[in-house]
Amino acid sequence: MFTRVVECNIRPGKTNEFTTVVRDQVLPILQKQTGFVDETLLVSTSDPEQVLALSFWRNREDAERYSREQYPRIASILQPVLTHDPTVRAFDVAHSVSHKIAAGKAA
Hints:
The chain has a 4-stranded antiparallel β-sheet. The longest helix is centred in the N-terminal third of the chain and has 17 residues, at 15-31. It is built from 3 helices and 4 strands; from the N terminus they run E-H-E-E-H-H-E. It is 33% helix and 28% strand.
């Protein structure tokens, strides 16, 4: 399994709008992508304008295809509520209880 971590800085007072846009516009796009498994949105408790979006994919290839073909569209949808472009990082998933992945079995 593979994950993309997208770090977003939200405009002041726009966190609720951001989460609504992700739920109503971004998630339906993600759910149509080959290899998409799950999305987790984390809002900082100390600074609600700091958000991490974690998307889980069956493998790196599916995530990279999404990144090339759909992510530019997603970034433009989110742009009005962000202070600047998100930071995107990619990781192999080494362990996950909810996705039943053990260390050493990641894609």
